[in-house]
Amino acid sequence: MTATLSTKAFAAKSATEALGPFTIERRQPQADDVLLDIKFCGICHSDLHQARNEWKNSTYPMVPGHEIVGVVKSVGSNVKDFKVGDSVGIGCFVNSCRKCEPCKNGEEQYCKDTAFTYNSSDNGHTTYGGYSTQITVDQKYLLKIPAGLSLDAAAPLLCAGITTYKPLKFWGAGPGKKVAIVGLGGLGHMAVKIAVAMGAEVSVLSRGNAKKEAAKKLGAHNFYATNDTKTMEELAEKFDLIIDTVSAEHDIDALLGTVKIGGTLVLVGVPPEGVKFNAHNLISKRRIFAGSMIGGIAETQEMLDFCAKHNVPADIELIKIQDVNEAYERMEKGDVRYRFVIDCASLN
Ligand code: NAP
Ligand code: ZN
Ligand code: ZN
């Protein structure tokens, strides 16, 4: 048995209990490992879905958190690219098989053996996420936080940033393209900033008008309320690309109607209730209905460098771990501008 490192954390003990203090064991760094002091961890809506078992795949106790930034505390003997004191990040997964096609193609997130950062297993060991004070990770799954990004505002890039950067890039957001972002939360606000930085004409589709001014401040060129049927009809066949970040059941057909002939609607939000749509709305306009999950390690580094270059941090509300349950309630109501980030010093 190798020795372990006792680590303070916050955990969900069941789907119905509030998160509370919990102690976990991290492995001592092996030759390829890096041990980091966690400074900040973003709160993704996926944390809430899983803490409450909304996707029916949860195991407990669960320490959520996959938007992790910290500072390197020690490195194993094989580690050359990271040194003590470096600013680093961990996203949604901490291992994969490294041999399959997706792994070789830099899409480790689609490996069938991906070890997700929490609510998953890595070589038979339960994984625990970033609502904690330290974590040990293999160097291949660690990212560098570029100088110029503050650590707290960089944390949400590790999930919200890459999850929106990847489909925007893959489906060609850029000059001359009309892109719509549906849902202005953690993912949505990063999608707006990144799509603007890529040079696209960006519209926000939100449930009502409450976020209209805020969307403009983020750089969005247009804003539309999806609860206004007439507006939705006027948007018929307007967009080349839609990134749908909505976390709950919503009207997919109304959104499909706003996609151009041959255009694409990409789901990144994962409503626990699933989604329904009318096949006519795809077929009649040769539309594409797609999905996308986070991004690979190399592309996540590319996204971090892009966000540093274009000065695109997340807009955050910093909280103490003791306020995490209230933050979940507020996120559920859409009351967050735009990402809660935990100051992990509050665990001590
Ligand atoms: P979030 O901050 O809570 O934002 C979700 C937004 O969806 C809200 O701000 C709201 O925007 C809209 N919304 C919420 N409930 C709605 C409803 N009933 N009807 C219509 N719109 C509603 O969540 P997030 O962290 O951005 O995550 C969004 C979703 O993406 C979650 O399902 C999460 O699990 C998923 N996700 C997927 C990936 C991936 O790899 N594909 C990665 C991370 C997260 P408005 O107020 O503007 O309407
Ligand atoms: Zn996430
Ligand atoms: Zn693999």
> What is the correct CATH architecture of the largest domain?
Alpha-Beta Complex
Largest sheet: 7 strands, mixed
Question: Uncertain spans, ≥5 residues at pLDDT below 50?
Answer: none
Rg for CA atoms: 20 Å
Mean of pLDDT: 97
Count of discrete domains: 2
SS content category = alpha/beta
Describe the model.
This protein is an alpha/beta fold and 348 residues long. It has 2 domains: 4-159 and 314-347, Quinone Oxidoreductase, Chain A, domain 1; 161-291, Rossmann fold, CATH 3.40.50. It is built from 11 helices and 19 strands. The strands form 5 sheets. Strands 3, 4, 5, 10, 11, 18 and 19 form a 7-stranded mixed beta sheet that branches. Helix 4 (160-170) crosses helix 5 (186-198) and helix 4 (160-170) crosses helix 10 (297-309). The protein binds NADP nicotinamide-adenine-dinucleotide phosphate (NAP) and zinc ion (2 copies).
Summarize the helices and strands and which ones pair or pack.
Elements: E1 4-11, E2 20-27, E3 33-42, H1 45-51, E4 68-75, E5 87-90, E6 93-95, H2 101-104, E7 115-116, E8 121-122, E9 125-126, E10 134-138, E11 143-144, H3 151-154, H4 160-170, E12 178-182, H5 186-198, E13 201-206, H6 212-217, E14 222-225, H7 229-234, E15 239-244, H8 252-256, E16 259-267, H9 280-283, E17 288-291, H10 297-309, E18 316-320, H11 324-332, E19 339-343
Parallel strand pairs: 12-13, 12-15, 13-14, 15-16, 16-17, 18-19
Antiparallel strand pairs: 1-2, 3-4, 3-10, 3-19, 4-5, 5-11, 6-7, 8-9
Residues 44, 46, 66, 159 line the site of one zinc ion (ZN).
